[in-house]
Amino acid sequence: MGLSLTFFTFRHLVLFSFLIFHLAIAHFISSTQPLCHDRERSALLNFKESLVINQTASSYSSTYPKVATWKPDEKNKDCCSWDGVKCNEDTGHVVELDLASSCLYGSINSTSSLFQLVHLQRLSLFDNNFNFSEIPSAILNFSRLTHLNLSQSYFSGQIPAELLELSNLEVLDLSYSNFDTFYLKLQKPGLANLAENLTNLKALDLINVHISSTVPHTLANLSSLRFSSLSGCRLQGEFPQEIFQLPNLQFL
Fold first, then answer.
1. Measured by CB atoms within 10 angstroms of the end CB, which terminus of the chain is less buried, N or C?
2. Average pLDDT taken over every residue of the chain
3. Where in or outside the cell (predicted)?
4. Phi/psi at 169 (nearest 5 deg)?
5. Whole-angstrom Cα distance, residue 207 to residue 214?
6. Mean of the pLDDT values across residues 47-66?
């Protein structure tokens, strides 16, 4: 009887120790998980304050003001948990910002705190109203960007040369569905420059961007391209045959 009791107690002691060990590991992991950086938290809050939340600024059914949940108080200190924000789990830097259909209204220029988020890899400002702002040249700060979606957001003017220097881009969407009006244009620099510089593109949507040029042969340099939409761009002439021979192209 004594031996059985001793064995029973020992077994439970082992199980208890095992449980305590795993709880300690879980606590260590959670306590060492990096919070977002103060500078990036401030940049997000300042970006929010520079714009107005207006329900009419977005038109899609999924519309809701994501930034309304961003608060500077201690309870919400970790901006990595904010709606639309994703951080790198190791460094705590903001790497994704999805503010699609977020009811944002106002202008953006190169002094915007948005451009302090230099670790961004994905940015979507789809379906907001930026009041016919030009795309700021400070977009060059986002040298790590792989995905950029500025479609349906009332940007206007010439697409800056700095955007065409974001050589890591894989997905670029600058489209607008209103075929009666041109807001953005890609002329100087033009489509040829884009194809020469953004050679990692897999998806390119420029619907209703005013290009008004012949289709450059340099598009055939985009060997990773799977999807491209250039309707409404007033392109002239025929597409060079080599473009249709791109190995990964599925839609043009």
1. N
2. 87
3. Membrane
4. -60, 130
5. 16
6. 94
- The string of DSSP codes covering 49-86 is HTSEE-GGG--STT---GGGG---SGGG--GGGSTTEE
Give yes or no for residue 71 having a pLDDT over 50.
Answer: yes
- In one letter, which amino acid is 71? K
Q: How far is CA 201 from the centre of its chain?
A: 15
Instruction: Please determine, for residue 170, whether its predicted confidence score (pLDDT) is greater than 60.
Output: yes
pLDDT at 31: 44
48: its two tokens = 């929010």
**Residues across the chain:** 252
Q: Strands, E, within the chain: which ranges?
A: 52-53, 85-87, 94-98, 104-105, 122-124, 133-134, 147-149, 155-158, 171-173, 184-185, 203-205, 227-229
State the pTM of this model: 0.85
**Token pair of 220 as six digits:** 């055939």
